[in-house]
Amino acid sequence: MQLKSMLPWLSCWLIGYIIQTPAECLADQPPNIILILADDHGYGDVSLYQRSECQTPHLENLAQEGLLFTHMRSNCTVCSPSRAAILTGCYPDRVGVPGVIRTNPEDSWGHFAPFLPTLPEQLKKKTYHTAAIGKWHLGLTSPNLPNERGFDFFHGFLGDMMDSYTTHLRHQQNYMRHNTQPIDPSGHATEIFADWTIDYLENRAKIPTQPFFLYLAFNAPHFPIEPPAEWLQKVKQRDPTLSDARARNVALVEHLDHHIGRITDKLNQLQLSDNTIVIFTSDNGGSLPHAQNNDPWRDGKQSHYDGGLKIPFVMRWPKGISKATRSDYQGLNFDIYPTLLELAGIEIPNDIDAVSLVPLLRGESMPAPRELYFVRREGGPKYAGKAYEALIYDGWKLMQNDPFSPWELYDLKNDPQEKSNLAENQRQKMQDLSRRIQKHIQRAGNIPWQRLPAKD
Description:
It is a single chain. The protein has helices spanning 3-18, 22-26, 57-64, 79-88, 119-123, 189-205, 229-238, 244-269, 306-309, 336-343, 358-361, 380-383, 427-444, and strands spanning 32-38, 67-69, 129-135, 153-157, 169-170, 173-174, 176-178, 181-182, 212-217, 276-282, 313-316, 325-327, 372-377, 387-393, 396-399, 408-411. The strands form three sheets. A ten-stranded mixed beta sheet has the order 8-7-4-3-9-1-10-11-2-12. It has 456 residues and is an alpha/beta fold. The protein is 30% helix and 16% strand.
C-alpha cells in the first residue's frame, strides 16, 4: 500500500487513538475518578467564564484539557442536600436531606436515608477502592459515617463548617477523623486536605490494577474567610482597590486553586492523568454577605435565583474527553452519579432522578426538556421549619425563596437574569409548573427527614 493511500486511514486511526470514546475506553481498565467539590464557590469566582478578580489558572487548565459546562446548577442552595444528591443520584428530599444537617438536633433539617445505595457502594461492583477526603456533612454518628456509606477510607471533617480553618473545631468539638479515629492535625484545612490527597494518590499508584474513586470535598471557600496571610498580602498588593472582605475571598479561592494544581501535578508525576476523570464543581453558589461573586446571575447562596444555583463545572479525562470543549447543557450536579456509573461500566439504577452526561462526552445531544427540581427546608423565623421549592422546565422557572412569599415566575430564555416576574400574567404556565412541583413533594413525602427512633 502506498503512503498516499494510507494517509486517510492513518489520520482516522490517530484521532481515535488520541481521544477514544467512553465505550472504547472501558474496553481497557475502568477510569480512576477524582470528584472535587468546593464549598460555596461562586460562578463569578473562577476565571473560567468571564473576567474575574479571582485568578484560577489550575481550573483553567482543567477546562482547557477537558469539557467546561456553562449552565450547570447545584441541587440545592445549601450544603448537605447537594452532597446527598450527588452521592445518590436522587433529589435531596427523596434521600431524607431537604435541609442542612447540623450539630444540634433542634437546628438540623435532614437525616441521610441509610438504606439507599451511594455512589461509592455502586462503584465497588467494579472493585473500585473508594475514599473520601475533606468535608462530609452528612452525619456525625452511625449509621451515616463515611465508612458506613461506602467509603473504604475517610480522612477528613465530619461536620458542617469549621469555626476556623486552622483550629478545625466546630462548636468547640473536634470532628476531624482518620476513618473513625479522632485526629488533631495542624495547618490550614485546604492544605491539609491536599496533602492527604497526595498521600492517597501515591499509595494508589502502587496498586495500578485497581481503579479508585476519590471524593475530595474542600471546606473552601466557605466562611469564615481565612486565607493564609501571605496569600492575602499577594492579592492586596496586586489590587489595592479591593475591600478587605473581597480581598480575603479572592485569596482563599486562589489558595484553593493552587492546591488543586498540586493534585493535578501529582497525577501527572505518577502517570495517572490519562485514565483519571477529574471533576470540579461546587455544592451551591457563593455567599454575597461574605463578598463572594456569582456574576452574571442574580443573588447567591440560600436563594433559588440562579446566583444560588449556577456553579462552576468542569470534567477532564484525557482518554475519553476532547480538549477545550464547552457545553451549554442545563443539568444538575447530581448528574455526576449516573455519568460515573456508566463510564465505569455499571448498570444505572432505574429509580434515580439524575441523568447521565455521557452523550455529551461523545459529542451527542441530550434528551430535552427535563424537569429540574429544587427544595430546601430550614428553621428560624423566616422559614419556621417549612420547605420552599423551585422548578425549571422548558425554559421557565417557578420559585420561592421562603415558604411564605408569593410564587415568582421567570422566562429564563428571554430573561436569564430573572428581572421580570411574570406570575401575574402567565397563570396557565404557573399552574403547569405548580402541578409538577406538587408531584415531587408527594414523592418525597415517603422519606423521613428526621432520624426515626430506635425500636425496642
